[in-house]
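Q: A reviewer asked whether we had any structural model of the full assembly, not just the individual parts. We don't, so I'm hoping you can provide one. Inputs are below.
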Amino acid sequence: MIEQISTIISMDGNGLYVWSCLFILFFIIGINIYLPNRKLNRIYKENKAKAQ
Amino acid sequence: MKSNIYNWFFLILRRDLLMAFRRSSTYITPLIFFLIVISFFPIALSPDQDFLRSLAPGVIWIAALLSSLLAIETIFSEDFRDGTLDEFFISNDPSFVLVFAKVLCHWLVTGFPILLASLISSLILYLPVSSLLPMICSLILGTFFMSLLGAIGAALSLGKSAILSAIIVLPFSIPTLLMGTAAVSSAIDYQDYSGFLLIMGAMLAIGVPGLCLLTVEAILLNYE
Amino acid sequence: MLPKLKVSNLSCRRADNQLFDDLNFEVHPGQNIEIIGSNGSGKTTLLRILLGLIDIGNGEMEWLDNENNYNNFRSIDCFYQGHSLGIKNLLSAQENLRLSSYSFGVSEEKILSSLNRVGINNHSSFASEMSVGQKKRISIARWLLKDFGIYFIDEPFSALDDQASSLIVEIIEELNAKGASFVITGHRPSEITSNQITLDHEV
Amino acid sequence: MNKIWNYIKDWFIEMGSPPLFFKWSSKILPWLLFISITVFIVGLLWGLFYSPTDYKQGDVYRIIYIHVPSAILGQSIFMFMAICGFITMVWRVKISGMLLKSAAPIGASFTLIALLTGSIWGKPTWGTWWVWDARLTSTLILFFIYAAIIGLHSSIDNKTKADRAISILSLVGIAIIPIIKKSVDWWQTLHQPSTFSLTSAPSMTPDMYQPLLLCVLGFYLIFALLLTMNLRAEVVIREKNRSWVSKQFLNLER
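A: Here is a predicted structure for the entire assembly that you could use as a starting point for your response.
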């Protein structure tokens, strides 16, 4: 079982390339999800503070 | 007397040329910049003849691109600042003619001296004589297209830094750069170069009406 | 007489500000309108909207055409002078005036007499050698080149000495007598008209 | 016909008015989030684990399931932006300018992903991180154009004005990008024979091709999700002083 996982992860020694691509993909998409939500949150907090 | 399009066109052209010749820096600065950039390549890379010859088309083209971009930044800003642009735009004459006249004037003032300087630089970069004709032809077409592109960049970044308009314009200048260098280097290899010139001409033919109209829109934005 | 320009329900907003709302006025021949407001109140924007330089207003503007019909297209001769004077530094006073008159063609005598009228005697010296007041006078000389229908002048009275402002008032009255109208802007009411529009939205 | 067209136009303009947009996007956002992330993850899992190994490149070819969809997205987002730019210029629809503005960073991100993954893929297959291949070069220029659009927008303070400025730029871009691609291709054939091609397996087998299609679909859905999020933030920032924001977004009654 562990061997199976490790063969999948290593991918004949090419695993590093594939997984770093996947990491880049999720990292950049993550930034794109995080930034607009942070903007919305900031305005939400500002206005909440103003209203109270 | 009713003004027609040609009167209007020549009026702007004459006025701009007159002012350009009264202030000599408008045509001398890009010229000197061009020559300085050219002379830096042998100094920085290598004075070897064969090496420089293979590099020459690209070097001349990059220098021409940068110097015409550098100069176009002020094409509308002065008229915008002193209010003459407002007058032109509220008059009933078509404003894309105004843009075209200003671009043509800019090209005559900066692009044309660069053409002459490129002849000198072909000597110091050991370019063979057979490639002079394609170089001049491609530079005529290419620098004019660059002036059109630069005009839209200048209009969009009116009143902002010059580097912004360079960032806007430079990515779009790739086809011109590629076609121009390809024409010259295929002439060095004794190959047919007319295809590249035809494509550049086609780009210019589409670019003149299209880019002039978009430039008008871009200038009008600055009044909001 | 019919008004030359009818403006009804004109409103404009920029970003979050309502610059003006429900503006109604008419420009009658020989009469002036003054638009009063502080900086940023939309005076210049209003002039630009009227002249069609920008298209961000809502409302109706009707111009009188030659057959006494109203339509949306400006057929009246308009003269516009913005904040900046429209004077080229690298051209002489005379050349500047010749440039402004390209579309209607004015004789050299007319140009010279207009310049003399505003007190500019060195016709061939470059505008770059002149003071701001003198440049302002050149720009006033351009009003005299032709009998325009409506003059749109942005802040004609700013940065002027008494002598020059009395000259402007004099010239405006002269042109009014010929049937021209002025739409001018300013920070505070001037003496040329009592017909005032105040743009004062509270910021 | 004209009547129908006007009806459709009015409907779109109404749906695009900021308060209404915020309302309906709030409703669909959870659904969009669920569907897009599911398709995205399933596509990637299928591609990365269950599709067969390429006989020539080995497992490293699996980068294709990340690289190709993001390259496709990078280009089609620009097309989308140009359409938005046209609508902004011609009909002055406010929301389309905001759409254009919010799509630009997403397009730049996908182009960047395509560039980076292409470069990583190049290392084991070509032995070098970067090759001046025609496609790589034109993708790089596409990225520069995105950067120019974002830079121009951020340099203009009046945001409606900035929207129209970048719509002009996107229209110039859509006209010139095909020329750039074509000219880079010619440049390649002139200088060096194109020995490298990104799709090393010219005829893919269906069990490699199907997950790729699913990945492309998943990426499009993710784009829709990101666009909706960005647009919502944009709308609220632009209109934060309006009363509908405090009512709908903050649930406050002032």
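A: Points you may want to mention in the reply: The CA atoms of residues 71 and 193 of chain C lie 27 Å apart. The mean pLDDT of chain C is 81.
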